[in-house]
Design a protein that fits this description.
144 residues; mainly alpha; 0% strand; globular; disordered N terminus; binds heme C
Length: 144
């Protein structure tokens, strides 16, 4: 199975399984799958915030990568699949998220706290901006 070959940590696997597993998909609408994937990635966001606090560069890089893949790729692709003809704005917001997480990952190589925190802030902001426009209002959640 392709998921096993990625050799990544369990959380990433969880997202990939939620997204890839045909058996799960058969019982779950794509909308449900997207929600689940978003929920999982929001856990990673908390882990990333904690890693930033303790300046743990290995962990920062790891969780930022999870998010980049999980939200920047999997969730966004699922959403686009569920909403054909989604606006260009959504794509721009997705890009913004992807770029911020990417820059955060790059800042880990330089161990630059200032850049890391600034990019983390931008990344979180892009979560919020996208939710304001595209997340249904009845979707209450404890996270942004
Ligand atoms: C480019 C757009 C976009 C970005 C960026 C984005 N999201 Fe989302 N997110 C959505 C959409 C759309 C939904 C609504 C999915 C649905 O209910 O159909 C959603 C839903 C959620 C949910 C609710 C899931 C539920 O239970 O209903 C959480 C939690 C979440 N996102 C977390 C995050 C976090 C954390 C980030 C940033 C680290 C983020 N999202 C970035 C578009 C985005």
């Amino acid at each position: 199975m392709s998921v096993a070959l990625t050799g990544l940590i369990s959380c990433k696997k969880a997202v990939e399984v939620a997204v890839d597993d045909e058996e799960i998909q058969a019982y779950m609408s794509e909308e449900e799958t997207l929600k689940l994937a978003m929920k999982r990635t929001s856990r990673d966001t908390r882990r990333l915030a904690n890693a930033l606090k303790s300046r743990d560069w290995i962990e920062i890089e790891m969780w930022a990568n999870e998010l980049k893949q999980g939200i920047g790729v999997s969730c966004v692709n699922l959403y686009i699949k569920n909403h054909p003809g989604v606006s260009g704005e959504f794509l721009i917001l997705s890009d913004r998220f992807y770029n911020a997480s990417n820059r955060l990952i790059l800042s880990c190589k330089k161990r630059d706290v200032e850049i890391a925190e600034a990019q983390f802030g931008k990344m979180i902001k892009s979560c919020e901006t996208c939710h304001e426009g595209y997340k249904k209002k009845d979707n209450n959640s404890d996270d942004k």
